Amino acid sequence: MKKVFRAGALSLFVAMASTTAFAASPAAFVDDASAKSIAEIENGKLAVEKSQSADVKTFAEMMIKDHTAANEKLKDIAATKKLEISDDAELMDKAKKMILEYRDASFDKAYAENQVTAHEQTIKLFEDEAKNGDDPEVKAFAAETLPKLKTHLEAARKLATSHGGKAE
After folding, report:
1. Fewer CB near the terminus (10 Å): N or C of the chain?
2. What is the pLDDT of residue 84?
3. Where are the domains of the chain?
4. What is the spatial distance between Cα 14 and Cα 16, in angstroms, rounded to a whole number?
5. Alpha helix positions (H), 18-135
6. How buried is residue 72: exposed, middle or buried, by Cβ count under 10 Å (0-12/13-18/19+)?
7. What's the rounded Cα separation, in Å, for the pair 61 and 56?
8. What is the dihedral of CA 73, 75, 77, 79, to 10 degrees?
9. What is the CB neighbour count within 10 angstroms for residue 79?
10. Rounded to an integer, what distance in angstroms lies between the CA atom of residue 53 and that of residue 47?
11. Under 8 Å CB-to-CB from 116, ≥6 apart: which residues?
12. What is the 8-class DSSP label of residue 22?
């Protein structure tokens, strides 16, 4: 019962915290985008460890590989502009990871649903930066990365559907 209560409380916290503002500056975008990638990498590692499903593990490995590559590219851009990238996942994404850790019985479903939500939020961030960004290089990075993120979202939706979760 204690685990259920903690998972419920964390779910409420994540729902309340999910109303974050879009990046208003290149520094804010770099920080937010890198934190989201770190969260994807960490959740991917957790999925590789905990999942019993080959399709979930394959998706998680793709998240680790693609988000590591994106963060490396963003790190290079940030270094030329003297901007700092996040070195830790955002608090909200840490809470999502904790929820996944408590949901052993339905881990694959929870992970897939989390990936749908996370990628929807990340796509909004990147679309806003690609459209309204102030720095041409950061703006170009956001625009270049969007197609991969949209591919991830579609894959996450298929994964969620195949594991009995919500794809929207």
Report:
1. N
2. 87
3. 2-12+25-162
4. 5
5. 26-50, 54-80, 91-102, 107-132
6. exposed
7. 9
8. -150
9. 11
10. 9
11. 153, 156, 157, 160, 165, 166, 167, 168
12. P
Q: ∠ at Cα 10 (32, 70), nearest 5°?
A: 25
Q: Per-residue pLDDT tens for 73-120?
A: 999 999 999 998 887 766 556 656 666 665 655 888 888 998 999 999
Rg (CA), the chain: 16
Nearest C-alpha neighbor of 67 from the set 166, 157, 152? 152
Domain 2-12+25-162 falls under CATH 3.30.70.260: no
Alpha carbon distances (Å) from 91 to 2, 39, 107, 130: 22, 10, 20, 25
Positions of the chain with pLDDT under 70: 1-24, 89-105
Q: How far apart are CA 82 and CA 89, in angstroms?
A: 20
